[in-house]
Amino acid sequence: MSTEVKVPELGDFENVPVIEILVGVGDDVEAETPLLTLESDKATMDVPSPVAGKVEQILVAIGDHVSEGTPIVLVAETAGAGASPGGQSQPAAGAPSAAAPAGAAAAPESSAAVPGSTGPAPAATPPAAAAPARSSYETQVVVIGAGPGGYTAAFRAADLGLKTILIERYERLGGVCLNVGCIPSKAFLHAAKTMSDAEDMVARGLHFEAPTIDLAALVGWKDEVVGQLTGGLAQLAKRRKVEVVTGVAEFVDPHAVRVGDREITFENAIIAAGSRPVKLPFIPEDPRVIDSTGALSPSEIPGRFLVIGGGVIGLEMATVYDALGAEVTVVEMLDQLIPGCDKDLVKPLATRIGKRYKQILTGTEVKAVTAGDEGLSVEFSNGQTEIYDQILVAVGRVPNGKLLGAERAGVAVSDRGFIGVDAQQRTNVPHIYAIGDIVGQPMLAHKATHEAKVAAEVIAGVPGAAFDARTVPSVAYTDPEVAWMGLTEATAAAQDVKYEKQVFPWAASGRALGLGRPDGLTKLLFDPDSGRLLGAGITGVGAGDLIAETVLALEAGLDAQDIALTIHPHPTLSETVAFAAEMQDRSITDLMPPRKKS
Ligand SMILES: Cc1cc2nc3c(=O)[nH]c(=O)nc-3n(C[C@H](O)[C@H](O)[C@H](O)COP(=O)(O)OP(=O)(O)OC[C@H]3O[C@@H](n4cnc5c(N)ncnc54)[C@H](O)[C@@H]3O)c2cc1C
Q1: Whose CA is nearest to atom 38 of ligand 1?
Q2: Is there an atom of ligand 1 within 6 Å of 288 CB?
Q3: Is 190 a catalytic residue?
Q4: 2-77 has which fold?
């Protein structure tokens, strides 16, 4: 006897595409063996066979759209084999359907699993009664990579009631950012700032003895900071009942990854596998050549130190090594430091480090490096040859997209290793999402965490979840710091965007003068028609914190008057933002108001 298997009740959904056929003609199936996978805009779901038998005919193809009652497969029942528990060939009313959003699918299990879950329940999630009882998959969400993108996605997914597995190849969670990126670099930068502040105060009458640097203790403190954060993450994962699997994940097919000898099947995956430093092929393998990871665990401070790459990471490391006593040279191929940032914002930094470093070479390439007993000999494109004791290569990062077997899941990866996504962080395979460095620039932790929440919320069916931030702010935590967001003048020129600009010089800020650091500026760009803020750039101590106000102003669509009429505490550096807005509003009194354009 043949059973015509039909699409069961799909809750609110109809006309959903078949994205995968899991059996072939002639296959033996048990009752409950998944036959094919459907995908709504909220979740993927398998349709199981209600009976045991042999697949006789497949009545649909991948891409076909089906609704409740559409015949999908003919199964010749095995003699004597019973139907699935319950004895029905279709789910009974009130029994789990195969088509509720993923969030609902595990609602009973997950809500028990995450006591105290604080995330809002997705409004689109239908009541548990309409949810499928069980998925044939081991988990609803698998997250690959536990950097800021991955752990945020996993935690948010769990808080939204989704059964979640987080896979990380290293024992410690936190990825690049916590272990070998944002956090350790900022700990070292704080140490550097403490020393350079003390040096700066000499000219103002405060004399300290030259610092004695216990490098092992300093590295130990940095490790402690990292340990506190990464340990905290492990605790948070445990409390949320996120299962953490240690090992390298590789896709087996669109619904399974392998980690060692374990295969994990999933309804949805979030790829958060990050990036790694770019290597320059012509530079020899030598222990004296390091990347940012090596630079953050120094065993000694080199004498002659070359930083290849005048971007944010290179310059932050240069700041640290300079303060610790190295003789620093920076070489940058393009014609300015921090390419991509407006020149006027970089200038105060270039001026300060120009006095401190041995050399800053812009518009210059490294042509060759030769390792010798006396050091690393470096040939530059300007004809100069110099010897260094250590070289830091900080020329960018390459995404890990090609290291995941993504092709087995059908996920498109670009030649450079990036994975393309839409505003909901979906890849070309709709139930597989990607976030963080692996999806593109800017490679920043706060972009990764924002995207992570979008992906988790889209999977859970939170209405309106999408990446629609107006800007991702950038910060170089150098001394002085350089921060920018929204429209830059360089982009405005390239795209012919009209704007009005106001620059408040920190030399007119009482707070900046009192800190002995008037070497800063706050620049705001406004839309000449609407008057709204379009972009901002701040250079000076603490610029990374100050830029946040302008990001909020941009997101809120504020104009100069809104900012100027907001009372800023005095004396603070935050006033410089208000002063620049007052310049646009022509209400400034701390400087002469700018002349009105005729
Ligand atoms: C020195 C330095 C300083 C930085 N400073 C800042 C800063 O101040 N602010 C800022 O916003 N950004 C900073 N960044 C950038 C920031 O670290 C990254 O943008 C951020 O870590 C990206 O997060 P992610 O989750 O995409 O990936 P990652 O943090 O790269 O995490 C990816 C994780 O995936 C794991 N993984 C990869 N492949 C697999 C696999 N197949 N199986 C299992 N696990 C896998 C990796 O081990 C890693 O833990 C800095 C970077 C560096 C190097």
Answers
A1: 273
A2: no
A3: no
A4: OB fold (Dihydrolipoamide Acetyltransferase, E2P) (2.40.50)
